[in-house]
Structures are given as C-alpha cells and as structure tokens.
Amino acid sequence: MSLQKVTVKDIIEKKKKGEKIVTITSYDYSMAKIVDESGIDLILVGDSLSMVMLGYKNTLSVTMDEMIHHTKAVSRGVSNALLVGDMPFLSYKIDSNEAVKNAGRFIQEGGAEAVKVEGGTEICSTIKAMIKADIQVMGHIGLTPQAIYEFGGFLVQGKTIEAAKKLILDAKNLEEAGVFSIVLESIPWQIAKLITSSIDIPTIGIGAGSYCDGQILVIHDMLGIFTEFKPKFVKYFGNIGKSIRRALDDYRDEVLNGIYPDREHSYEFPQQDLNKISQWIEKIDICEEAHKIL
Questions:
Q1: Active-site residue numbers?
Q2: Which residue ranges form the domains of the chain, and what is each CATH number?
Q3: pTM confidence score
C-alpha cells in the first residue's frame, strides 16, 4: 500500500471533504509499525497505556517519563500516520509554562507531531499557550478518564440538558482556542451529532456514535487483548488475546513433550567435523583444557 504522510491539515481537510477519519492507539514499535502500514490516519499514544501496558487500575498513575518512553518507541515505527502524544495527569493543568514544556517534550524527545489534552473551557488558556509555542493540540471532552474520581467512575457524560449544553459550549471554546480536532468520549450519539455539526474541526468519537467525523479505539480493546472490562462501545474486530493464549499453550506443550525444537528449527554442525570433535573429546581431559583457556 502506497501511503502519504498525514498532517494536521490533512485531518482538518477530511472533515471538509466528508471523509471519515480512522484513528487508533499504539504503545510500542512493533504494533505501531503494523498499524502504520494499514493506512490509519492518526495514531495516539494514549495514557490508556497506564492500564493496558503497565497494569495500573486507571490512567492517573502513568508519568510523563513513561509516556515519553512509549511515544519514542511508537515514533520509530510510524512513517505515515499523524502521531499524537497523550498528556498525562498533572502534566498540563497546574501551570501553563510547565504545560508547554511537557507538551514540548512529546515533540522534541518523543517524536510526536501533536499532543492531546483532556478538558473543556477551563483549559483553553493553556491550549493557547501551547499553540503559541508552535505545538499542535487535540482536545478531549465528555468522559475524560483523568477526572474519573470527579465523575464517580467511567460513566456516560452529557445525559442531561445542562450537561449537554456544557459539552457543546466546551467544543466551541476548544475550537476557538485553536485545537485541530476533538475526541468525544462516552456521550449520547445525538449530542455528538450536534457538536459535530456545530464546529468546523473534526470530532473523533469513542462511544459517541456514528455521526462523528472519525473514530478511535484502544487497540488492546478492539483486538480482545485487554478484557478486564468491556465498555458498551467496544467491538472485538479480532480475538488476538485468544490466539496468543492458544499459541502459548501449544508452545508449552511442545517443549514439555520434546516436540519443539525439532531439526527444522535447529542449527546443523557439519557431520565430518562433528566426528573430529567427538574423537578429540575422547582423547583429552576437558577440565584441563578449560583451565588452559581461563
């Protein structure tokens, strides 16, 4: 597949042309390379790696250094997709200057081309500071996992008139602040449709219905690798988790039963030379020869 490098401008143009935007998460070089070769528009190194890669109970525990580490790995495997780094908890909401520095690390050290931040109107000034520093920013409203203790868990947002109004206003303010797209997570599809038609920048849905300009899923969710819980919006597009478990069972059984490795998977030593080695072993004291080498 012949692919061209995707830019922020390309993502915005896709909305204008009515073309759907396909995005996914990745966290390591090997998976990112496969994803990139499949024609995905945008790859997010999500703070979801906190749960699916590092085993934390939520996204709050992952650090800036861990996010940069994984973004570096992903960037080495990406040549075509737009690469976005997800700014972790406490990296951008305390101080604007610190936020710009942290966002800059994703670009300078991590190899990302943009960053994603969670929040609405309250973080617009910080977003403007990032953009002023020539850093492209992606927004994220609705269920923002970094605020799960405020929400009381991974709950659908925007279910009341007032909550829906706030989401629409947040989206407008984020657009005016300069974000190039907005992730809409876990909100009713009707509200996502209203937001999408109200702004000129793309919306990327995750649990926000089919009227968004694009969609994103956590790759470990959609492949059936991370199965500790399954949100309503997750569809298994493959069951790689089962395939991995089956492969490991087969590997264990073959090793235990002496089936693997067989000759096909072993290196050969020339038979005539092997005979010479065998004769040599019979004639010498192996321990004495070993001491000579030491």
A1: 185
A2: 8-242 (3.20.20.60), 245-293 (no CATH)
A3: 0.91
